[in-house]
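hey so i finally got around to running the thing on that chain from the lab meeting. sorry it took forever, my laptop kept dying and i had to restart like 3 times. anyway pasting the input first so we r on the same page abt which one it is
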Amino acid sequence: MKRKEVKRLLKEHPEFESWLMEDEARVRAVRTNPGTAEELFKQWSDRKKGRLDFHTISQKTKRASEMLNSVQSIMDMMADYTKKL
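ok and heres what got predicted. didnt touch it at all, straight out
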């Protein structure tokens, strides 16, 4: 893997980049040999598949709830308007 490919991989997967930065040994390994980035990415993705990311799930649930609340308020306003007619 070339340096440009590693940079593109890190841009496409910022979570992977933050995982690399957690350990100085991983950073050194990628800097000395960019080919190890592919192995580390496979290791990271396999590790990530095995667990649920509750933080992301809760953020998405919160966003969906907010959207549903706004739609509900719009529907209520429309119902009130039709009652006045």
